[in-house]
């Protein structure tokens, strides 16, 4: 099983039964089932966790492709759930049907419940919807928010599949000491003044982050926080309270503060204190950024950044000495 979900396919079953003159005859109506289980930790969504989502469908006529000026009529709005990740049902047993002519464009997101005061909005004149969203200030409560869209579907399709993808940015820290003879004790890492809210556009598939509010995200390391330096990264912080899923944004001299101490042969060579690194980077949807914090006892803190695994890769390095 893939540890990181790149795309979740939700099959939208086509069943038969006529509803009224607007819909196709028996054997050609379509029921879309969508569901998701809310992930209450900062854990990237995996297939076994994907059990509920919300979807919308908009019918329109004409041969032109769906675009910003297309006026769609909402024929589907449902909350869908599944227990086996294959068969999906609307939670209130609603059924939805193909129009007798034209096409349907679908949009979806998961989890189906948005944060308080945040909304999904379809423009009055048609086109592409937007979603406002806020990342949780508590790391272990952050959610791998997913989005999906599928345009220009017709009643001839036997099934409609929504492909969900990561909408936010995953951030992981690694800890490394530059001296193999030194023991390092790290007690806290704080990523400061990050943007937490923004608006996602289905048209551009990008975010516009809000300038405020901002938040500081702290990783407190009370246990399992001592390691010996060396060539390899000694620790990768991927526990629920350490792995962050954050708002895509432009980092303009964002700061990372690391509180640590260092000893050699039982003698303290760096008294517990804070070293700061500044980062300039661009975070996009679906990217996984891994920052290695290189601790040098009594002197500088170096930072390097790479992207890993199945998320869209983009390399970047930064060395900062404060």
Automatic annotation (TrEMBL):
CDD domains: BF2867_like_C (cd13121), BF2867_like_N (cd13120). It holds the Pfam family Mfa_like_1. This is Fimbrillin family protein. It comes from Bacteroides ovatus.
């Amino acid at each position: 099983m893939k540890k990181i979900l790149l795309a979740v396919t939700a099959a939208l079953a086509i069943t038969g039964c006529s509803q009224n003159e607007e819909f196709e005859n028996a054997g050609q109506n379509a029921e879309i089932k969508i569901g998701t289980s809310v992930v209450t930790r900062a854990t990237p969504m995996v297939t076994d966790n994907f059990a509920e989502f919300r979807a919308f469908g908009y019918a329109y006529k004409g041969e032109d492709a769906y675009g910003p000026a297309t006026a769609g009529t909402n024929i589907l709005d449902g909350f869908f759930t599944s227990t086996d990740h294959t068969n999906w049902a609307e939670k209130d047993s609603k059924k939805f049907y193909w129009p007798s002519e034209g096409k349907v464009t679908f949009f979806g997101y998961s989890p189906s419940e948005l944060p308080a005061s945040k909304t999904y909005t379809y423009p009055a004149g048609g086109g592409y919807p937007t979603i406002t969203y806020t990342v949780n200030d508590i790391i272990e409560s952050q959610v791998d928010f997913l989005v999906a869209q599928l345009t220009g579907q017709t009643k001839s399709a036997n099934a409609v599949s929504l492909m969900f993808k990561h909408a936010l940015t995953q951030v992981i820290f690694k800890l490394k000491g530059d001296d193999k003879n030194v023991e390092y004790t790290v007690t806290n890492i704080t990523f400061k003044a990050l943007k937490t809210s923004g608006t996602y556009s289905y048209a551009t598939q990008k975010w516009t982050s809000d300038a405020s509010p901002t938040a500081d995200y702290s990783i407190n390391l009370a246990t399992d926080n001592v390691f010996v330096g060396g060539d390899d990264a000694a620790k990768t912080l991927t526990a629920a309270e350490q792995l962050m899923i954050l708002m895509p944004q432009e980092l303009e001299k964002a700061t990372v503060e690391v509180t640590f101490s260092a000893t050699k042969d039982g003698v303290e060579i760096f008294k517990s204190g804070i070293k700061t690194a500044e980062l300039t980077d661009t975070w996009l949807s679906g990217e996984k950024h891994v920052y290695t914090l290189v601790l040098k006892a009594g002197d500088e803190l170096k930072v390097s950044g790479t992207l890993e695994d199945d998320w869209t890769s983009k390399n970047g390095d930064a060395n900062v000495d404060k």
